[in-house]
Amino acid sequence: MRVLFTTHTAKSHLFAQVSLAWALRAAGHEVHMAGQPDLADDITRTGLTAVTAGAALDLAAQMESYEHNEHDGSGDGTVQDPGAWEGTGGADDYRAIAERYEYWTDMTEIRPQKLSYEYMHGVFTAMTTQVFQQYSAPAMIDDLVRHARWWRPDLVVWDPLTFAGPVAARAVGAAHVRLLFGLDLIGRMRRPYLDALRRLPPAQREDPMEEWLGDTVRRYGGEFGEDLVVGQRTIDPLPPALRFLDGPDRVPMRCAPHNGSSVLPDWLREPQERRRVCLTLGVSHRELLGADRLPLGEVLAALAGVDAEVVATLNAAQLASVTEVPDNVRVVDFVPLETLLPSCSAVIHHGGAGTFNTALSCGVPQLILPDGVWDTDHKARLLEERGAGIRVAQPEKADAATLHGMITRLLEEPSFGRAAARLRDESRDMPAPSAVVPVLEELAAGRRPHQRQGEWQ
């Protein structure tokens, strides 16, 4: 069969799809990986065939503009110009707009008492207009549909933030599934939102996602269905103890980490003389903004007195603001985490999907300083509740002494290692990507509207 993957323009989202894409290739199926032109080189470096759709997203410029609004209160960036709001148009108004933007595009709220219809409707309206429509702009959807009509995929596997995928699938009658990279925040809020919507009189029901996706898919001869929001199936890489949602539409799949192209360093093969700790703040944020949101200087100072070798994956830009690197810290620009973490007794990181999932698969206790992006704080909370890590509640205010105590606990208290090993074993009990291939074959076969000569059976 032919399988079209659609990914968001960030390496971590692409990397979350690579193992399944190669499992399908290994099973004899054809695979294309589609995304904006920004990601084409990263796709080809995975060995997969890249398909470009739409204009460059330039996510770095968008995030830089938003960060400028959030911290300086100046510039309009991705939020509405202050002239459209009541007020003086000065810095205070810009800050108010940035705060409103951050509030209404926050899908992390899960407390039932907070999930009123008004709140959820505001979030879905803001996310649809300010985020989802940017990530799947009309030009990208047009290009993707054009490619799908030419190539005729049997199955579309799409990133939860890239709704061009299910639209293209509907346009050609292909089966389609979401592939999560972390917690299902959209599905988690979507269920109570639809329940609240059904309680309203029909004349008052307004669903911004149905309006946008319905209008969009009708341009290509399709009709809206809730599967355009949450997929016909959802592939979930997290072990059951860490999932937000479960049910018959869920397809569990063990995380098989892919951290990018690299060469194994010689020092990693040398005998270890003492415990090892990994410090990583990921690559996506540093490549987009050239900086991190976390107090790197305090983290390094906290590691100075730790009885362990520390491997810190930091580049020159990240180290520019650091006055001193402790003697027990080995700085490397990049090392594949799936090869490094099995030798580590703990990992310190920002909560990104790639690092979090790789640490889970290796059974390594985690100290997480959530950077506030998408689901990082929720994952840290869940991990802490399962006893496999520690969450830093306010990373921007963390000092070296507090962090040193947390790191020491992870290394000295055996309970963290035991809990991390349990989650690792739970993850290993999930089907490997190769075992998910027959599930996807069956789904595609049951929904395929056409049969090509010599097609897979």
Average predicted local confidence, pLDDT: 88
The CATH homologous superfamily of the largest domain is named Glycogen Phosphorylase B
Number of domains: 3
Question: What is the highest CATH level, the class of the largest domain?
Answer: Alpha Beta
Gap between N and C termini, in Å? Answer: 8 Å
Physical arrangement of strands within the biggest beta sheet = 3-2-1-4-5-6-7
Which second-level CATH architecture of the largest domain applies? Answer: 3-Layer(aba) Sandwich
Radius of gyration: 23 Å
**What fraction, in percent, of the residue positions are helical?**
40-55%
Count of distinct strands: 13
Estimate the strand proportion. 5-15%
Low-confidence stretches: 69-91, 450-457
Task: Predict the CATH topology of the largest domain.
Answer: Rossmann fold
Secondary structure tally, helices: 19
Main sheet record:
7 strands, parallel
Give the helix/strand class. Answer: alpha/beta
Outline type:
globular
